[in-house]
Amino acid sequence: MRRLAGVEDEEKWLAEGIAGIQHNAFFMHRALDANNLREVLKYSALMLSELRTSKLSPQKYYDLYMRAFDQLRQLEVFFKDESRHGLPVVDLYELVQHAGNILPRMYLLCTVGSVYMKSKQAPSKDVLKDLVEMCRGVQHPIRGLFLRSYLAQVSRDKLPEIGSEYEGDANTVMDAVEFVLQNFTEMNKLWVRIQHQGPGTVREKQEKERNELRDLVGKNLHVLGQIEGVDLEMYKETVLPRVLEQVVNCKDELAQYYLMECIIQVFPDEYHLQTLETLLAACTQLMPTVDTKIVLTQLMDRLSNYAASSPDVLHEFLQVEAFAKLSNAIGKVIETQIEMPIIGAMTLFVSLLTFTLRVHPDRLDYVDQILGACVVKLSSVPKLEDARAMKQVVALLSAPLEKYNDIVTALTLSNYPRVMDHLDDGTNKVMAMLIIQSIMKNNSCISTADKVEVLFELIKGLIKDLDGTDTEELDEEDFQEEQNSVARLIHMLDNEEPEEMLKIICVVRKHLMTGGTRRLPFTVPPLVFSALRLVRQLDSQGGDITGEEVSATPRKIFQILNQTIEVLSSVPCPELALRLYLQCAEAASDCDLEPVAYEFFTQAFILYEEEIADSKAQVTAIHLIIGTLQRINVFGVENRDTLTHKATGYSARLLKKPDQCRAVYACSHLFWVDDIDGIKDGERALLCLRRALRIANAAQEMANATRGSSGPVTLFVEILNKYIYFYEKGNPHITPSDLQSLIELINTEMQSDDNGNRRTHSDPFFTSTLRYIRFQKQKGGLIGDKYDLIKL
């Protein structure tokens, strides 16, 4: 009837029960004031009869119970004072057993029993045994649970534990343990029985009610964990076997899960460690529907924290072979619970790995063993699609990185990449990014080709498309961040031995070349610069480094670079390829490899001619070519003439006249290099400047034809500054008259435009240049003499 009742009915029944308690409590208090024992017992029994109801849910029954409990506290005070009721406590103990109904009788008996034990007129163990046995008379689950909870509460401070006033010859700690265990056993039976009452249609409500009552049962285990005198031996021989026997035999999912959780939480860590085998054996005997993974996870977390609390306890873990026992138990649980979802197995592996990294950080074989078991489990499912399970796998793979702060250690784990193979593409990339971030954070250097091979297998999700996925679907910002991370990683690969470093470069190149057209522009440049660093290292070592006995030679490395950049130029990404060719040419020049440097320049010019069509890109490219060629001094006369002729020719063919002018006067530096061994062909440098001046004049005429004015004189001022530079450097073909005529030309251009209108503004650049010339004239000496002939 109660199970089908509504909330309003329950509220009404609760109100009626509370009213009944209050009514009888009133008469009970009046009898207490009058010290009338008979009336006290009469009205207290009537009051407690309200607890016989079967209509209330556990929550409502608890409210009613607490009302009665408050009254029982005052009743206990009365029973303690023999002068008020006039009966010895032994007679009182006998008298209350004559109450008409079992439930009021037992509450009164427990209350008097508490006073009886307090008086020490009888061994407390006998009273406890008597009470716990007689409570069996109440077999209604809810009423019985609250009754036994009351018994446990009033007897808690009277247990004969070590240090207690109730301990003596007749009372031992074992008696206290026996009482709590017996009460726990009976309460658990009552709790489990709830599920078998009523029709199956109210099963959900029953589960809810049982959850509300579970703490009443769990308090017994809490008391067991607090009893002074329960040492490891007693716990191992008596307490744990009795509790686990009840847990396993009850065959109830909720009870088994909750009680195992209680055992793990209330007893000391060192007890768990010493009884690990027994505890784990019980875990494997639980019902298949029990969530064993949470139980084992909590156990391993507690043991992990215990191990981390002090280094002194680690030897205990070795003595009991904790890892082997936990590993075997987890294997059995996963094997027997066929229906366990993959997330459950992964959670167990993560907890076991966390435990291992804390207790046995030096045992990499244990870590690899866990990863291997994970691979076996993952291989049994067609495809890992559970996002939560995927998250646990990432946690599993991240744990060694966080513990060792060194990817090199993780690279020695043979099963690490096999676990990563089971991740989907998105998660694989996330894990790859975590690996790279770990390397950057800890500044780890990967120094062997074998480890680089393993590393790039781990991060292959960032290096190439997996399972035919299209990079076009990726967010551009995310894609760039991923590739920039790979680029940074390449700079962390290093080895002082040239042969090994060359192997590393070849391994990296092999992987990067599979990356596709979108990735190469990000990943090839750091590879090229890493190889160039090796070239300069070899060059700095000196000696005969090009012999056949040395595998890592600059010439061999340049061959690899040429092939690599050639792939990049076909992406197409010609501007980047051209820059890299020029970098290689400069490095080849430093190694005195003229044919190699010439070949790189040739490739750069071919790219310029065939691939670079944008006018702005052409301007940038030609200035890069000119700047690089100017710094290189390895070429003979013939090769240098060929290259400089090409550079000046391309400069003069740029689309815009100002761009032509600037590129041509930049070419003047190709014929006058201000180094000790640099070329100094003053005549050809002057020819470049004069050619630039003609182009500047043409630009002014074009501006006048299109806009009606000659435009600014910036180009003339720039050319003037080039004249001054070469004049100061001692070019004999540039004379003061050249400077004078150019200054006058600029002044004329600034004074008026072609329509005869006078300009009112001056060019700041020109003004600054004239100020520099005046400053040089005022210096005196050789510099001053040079500028004396120039009239401003």
From TrEMBL:
Cellular compartments annotated: Cytoplasm; Endosome membrane; Golgi apparatus, trans-Golgi network membrane; Prevacuolar compartment membrane
Keywords, alphabetical: Cytoplasm, Endosome, Golgi apparatus, Membrane, Protein transport, Transport
Membrane topology of this protein: Peripheral membrane protein
SUPFAM superfamilies on file: ARM repeat (SSF48371)
Cellular-component GO terms for this entry: cytosol; endosome membrane; Golgi apparatus; late endosome; retromer, cargo-selective complex
Main location, first listed in the record: cytoplasm
GO aspect biological process, one term: retrograde transport, endosome to Golgi
Domain of life of the source: Eukaryota
Function summary: Plays a role in vesicular protein sorting.
Family membership: Belongs to the VPS35 family.
Name of the protein in question: Vacuolar protein sorting-associated protein 35
Organism: Brassica carinata
